[in-house]
Design a protein that fits this description.
Distance between the termini: 39 Å
Number of strands: 12
Order of helices and strands: EEHEEEEEEHEEEEH
Shape: globular
Structural class: mainly beta
Strand order of the largest sheet: 1-10-9-3-7-6
Helix content: under 10%
Length: about 190
Amino acid sequence: MGLSLRKGGNVSLSREGGASLNKIIIGVGWDERATDGSDIDLDANVFLLDGNGKVRSDADFIFYNQLKSACGSVEHMGDNLTGGDDGDDEQIVIMLQEVPADVHKVAVTVTIYDAEANGQNFGMVSNAFIRVVDNNNGKEMLRYDLSVDSDTETAMIFAEVYRYRGDWKFKAIGQGFVGGLGPLARHFGVKI
């Protein structure tokens, strides 16, 4: 098991993974806490952000309907509709050396699909986590276990992978949004 982070904590990925680190796997997982009997469908989303914290274009929004970035550096490995299995429920692969130079951050977010229609929120989710795995050896480098207790938030920024002085770093965020994917996407400059 890798380094355990708390909200706001950050770590150098190359220090944890070594100089040869290029390809990382971001795994996210969750379990249902309590519902009205329907499954909770969480969706991992990725935003490639410029120096102003905005997408360069809508193509920088990677999600279940656009699984790969135009540059090929980020790939979403598919949508899990229930989150009921052990381990990662959804995964995102990031080729760090392939990320365009004008992308300063890769924001990893999670939203609840159709949350308002189903009366769901992050207060109904337990055991939510995000972790980084070194693709070279399959070892977990770090993990952030979210303690989410919110009865209003339906979208969450889990973490950021960002450039700092030529190095890639990871920061545990845990910031929630009310209203789901729309307000979250607009926050990052996606035109919906």
